[in-house]
Each structure stands twice: as structure tokens, then as C-alpha cells.
Specification:
Structural class: mainly beta
Order of helices and strands: EEEEEEEEEEE
Number of helices: 0
Largest sheet: 7 strands, mixed
Distance between the termini: 40 Å
Helix content: under 10%
Strand content: over 45%
Oligomer: single chain
Low-confidence stretches: none
Length: 123
Amino acid sequence: QVQLVESGGGLVQAGGSLRLSCAASRTIFGYFVMGWFRQAPGKEREFVAAIGWSDSSTYYADSVKGRFTISRDNAKSTGYLQINSLKPADTAVYYCAGTASVRSWPRGPYDYWGQGTQVTVSS
């Protein structure tokens, strides 16, 4: 079992940037995938991006390609989601998730979930 805690959300103007963090409660080793999802008010949860922990391979939803960058720091057991050129449509609660199952690459299912961090983009 691993606990995940997101941070870094906030209120920003359109065009701004945020860097979200996802800290894991234990050292990650072996096969592991960390993903990011978001859920806007009244909408279903949406997959955003995923990263393979061992080789840092990445996968992005079409809706965020070119603006979002997923990364990880193995020494800190922390994943990151850099969001640039924020749009009002990016407003959502952002969740990180993890799985040790190879079959889950890249969209899920995920076994571990953080509590979410709010991103609000004003126009």
C-alpha cells in the first residue's frame, strides 16, 4: 500500500502556469506507473497523463499535449505535472494515482489515489 498526496494547485489567471506535485509515502521500486486525472464540476473524471517510473516513458491525453509535462524524481518518490498556458477549461480537481500492474499502462485501472488538489483558472 502507498499513500499519495497532491499539492501545488491554486487560483491563476489564464495563460499562467502551475506545477503540481504528487508525493508517495514510500520509496517506489520495480514496475510502477503514476497517472494524473482531473475532474471538473459536473463532469466525469478525465485521464490526463501517465509516466512509467523506471524509464520515465510518458503518455498524454490529446487534450493536454503540448501544454502539460509529466515527470518524476525517483529520489524524492515524487511525481510532477507541469501545466503551462492554463485555460479556464483546465479548471478542475487534479488527482494523482498509482499502480504496480503492467496491464494498467497507461490509462488504468489505478490502485492508489491522492485526495486531489484544486486548480482554478480565471478568464
